[in-house]
Amino acid sequence: MVLMGHRRSKVMRLALPIMLGMLSQSVLNLIDAALVGSLGEVALAGVGVGGYAMFMMTALVFGLSSGVQAQTAQRTGAQCATPAQPLNAGLLIALGVGLPLTLMAWWQAPLLIRLMTQTTDVHSVAVDYFRWRVVSLSAIAMTLCFRGYWNGRQYTSLYLRIIVGVHVLNVFISIGLIFGYAGLPQMGASGAGAGTTLSIFIGLVAWLFVSVKGACQQGFLQHLPSSQQIRQTLVLAFPHSFQQLWFAAGYAVLIWMLSQIDTASVAVGHVLINLSLLLILPGVGLGVAAMSLVGDALGREARQEAHRWGWDALGVAWQLLALLALPMLLFPSALLGLFFHQEALIALGRLPLQLTGAMIVLDAAALVLAQALMGAGAQRTVMMLTLSMQWLLFLPLAWWVGVVHEHGLIGIWLVQLIYRLLNSLAFLWVWQRRRWASPL
After folding, report:
1. Which of 72, 130, 357, 372 has CB atoms 3.0–4.6 Å from 328's, for a disulfide?
2. pLDDT tens-digit profile of 160-198?
3. pLDDT tens across 137-157, in order?
């Protein structure tokens, strides 16, 4: 019992900085919305559309983080003298992929944004905002590599310190550029994009400084990565990036479905989705911690220990997510009253919000074990399972139940509850089969 408590406390110690860092990102998004919202609904809508387009671009390089982290954790566990070699490969890929994507996206920004909105004034704001943001794509990709390396070495508190510092800078820089304070140009909504990009580059410099100081002896920037190392990193990064891209697209399809029902369903669904994405962050953070612990154990060829780390992280996640879900289950009207003032919208969202609370708990196994499997190098398995369940099961069934048979928002959310349950059961099955339990 004492040993179990020690293991779970280690999971929580590694996961807590990651969770707080992710939470700070969500808080920053709310602050940005409040700042831009003071400029009017057109500016807010434009930044929302531009921000979603940037999210899709970021998804294309997101897999670099897990690819670098999985390799670093296993090399650390195997006591390899150069655990930073995957970081070198990741940084080279980040530049090789990020720069062409940046140029293409900046050039084709009007066309890309037009796919998301045809409103002229919103389109104009969104294009300007997106162009400022997409300049930072290579810096984001490189930052993901640094984050993956240091998380793989189990220095997760470093991620928290840097990301919080970057977010604080972002707020002050964005305020100055949006409203023209402190002698800065008054850029309006575009200032939010410029401020975010500038803070990301400052954060990249911080990561580089820390890594030069603390990782050179582990092989950082000592040699060019081999073609085999680059290929291995790409093999691990591509499935996760592909998964993130289509997972995000799935939410766009879900919003479109709700728009086929009525405007009220879109409004309530948007709030429910954002609440669920916020409250699953502890599960994701615990999963990222499990990724490092599983990779480290497999590097030492401790397969049984790696398997146990997945269960330890999942046990903590179930307890934490159940606690977070309680207010949604017990006080749905009070929570919805924070977002809506019309009783009709609160009534519409009451049962779906309770279903969302249940989903969060049911989703724990998928959230944690997906990350743990990536620590074992099973990114392709995670991608195939996640996307097939979302695109072949949930979305078609949600359309059939909610739109075709006119069961509306409640019907779609009931389908989503079943989908989350089946998705978690599938990940539990894969985890218990242990076909992943071999080092990279």
Report:
1. 357
2. 899 888 888 988 998 999 999 988 899 988 898 899 999
3. 999 999 999 999 999 898 888
- Non-local (6+) Cβ contacts of 418 within 8 A are none
Q: Residue 163 carries which side chain, given as an amino acid letter?
A: I
For 122, the token pair is: 């919103």
Tell me the CA distances in angstroms from 123 to 56, 90, 111, 211, one per residue in order: 17, 34, 10, 40
What percentage of the chain has pLDDT greater than the value 70?
95
Contact 324, 284 (CB under 8 A): no
| Identity at 397, one-letter amino acid code | L
This prediction's pTM: 0.84
**DSSP assignment of 5-44, as one string?**
HHHHHHHHHHHHHHHHHHHHHHHHHHHHHHHHHTT-HHHH
pLDDT (tens digit per residue) in 363-381: 999 999 998 998 888 888 9
Please name the helix (run of DSSP H) or strand (run of DSSP E) that holds residue 233, with its range, or none. helix 227-259
Dist CA 2 CA 5 (whole Å): 5
Q: Which residues of 162-182 are buried (b: 16+ CB within 10 A; e: fewer)?
A: bbbebbebbbebbbbbbbeee
DSSP strands (E only) in 347-410: none
pLDDT digits (tens, 9 = 90+) for 331-368: 999 988 877 778 888 898 899 999 999 999 999 999 99
Nearest to 15 by CA among 303, 274, 297, 321: 321
Q: Flag whether pLDDT at 4 surpasses 70.
A: no
DSSP E strand stretches across 291-375: none
Average of pLDDT values for 409-423?
94
| Location of structure tokens 């242990």 | 434
Residue the block writes with tokens 């359309």? 399
Nearest residue to 261 via CA among 390, 397, 119, 404: 404
